[in-house]
Amino acid sequence: MEKIPACPACSSLCGYEIDGKLVCPECGFEWVAEVAEEIGAFVVKDANSNILADGDTVVVVKDLPVKGAVKAIKAGTKVKNIRLVEGDHNIDCKIEGFGAMALKSEFVRKG
Fold first, then answer.
1. Residues in contact with 18: Cβ distance below 8 Å, sequence separation at least 6, in sequence order
2. Which of 73, 87, 103, 110 could form an SS bridge with 91, CB 3.0 to 4.6 Å?
3. Is this model's pTM higher than 0.90 or not?
C-alpha cells in the first residue's frame, strides 16, 4: 500500500483514499486525484483522461481483436463493473460473449 501524505490543511497523518480522492477524516479536506498521482498513488485513466474507479462502466472505443476468438470486441461495447489492477492490462472485467478479459485503459472511455 502506498504511503498517504499528511493532510495539507491540518497535517493529520490519518488520511485515506476514496473514489480517486484523498480524504482527511479529522478536518474533512479532500485532495483531487491529480495530487494523488503526483505522490505516486495508483491512478488509472481512460482514453479521455478521466479517472477510473472499481465498479465503473466503460465503453470500448475501437475494435479489439482477441486471440483465439472468431470475432473482435466491437467499438461501443459496454463493459460493466470493472476492476482495476496494476500492470500493462490494468482493467479486469467480464464481457458478454467473451468471458473474463483484461483490457488496457487506453482503449476504453468512461460510460
1. none
2. 103
3. no
Q: Which amino acid is at 27?
A: C
Query: Could you read off the pLDDT of 9-54 as tens digits, one per residue?
Result: 777 788 888 877 888 888 888 876 455 555 555 678 889 888 888 8
Is 90 exceeded by the pLDDT of residue 103?
A: yes
Give the DSSP per-residue string, the chain: -PPPPPPTTT--S--EEETTEEE-TTT--EE-HHHHHHTT---EE-TTSPEE-TT--EEE-S-B--TT-SSPBPTT-EE-S-EE-SSSS-EEEEETTTEEEEE-GGGEEE-
β-pair partners for 93: 101
Retrieve residue 51's grid coordinates.
Answer: 479517472
Grid cell of 46 as nine digits: 481512460
- Lookup: cell for 88: 500493462
Q: Bridge partners of 17?
A: 22
C-alpha cell at 76: 461501443
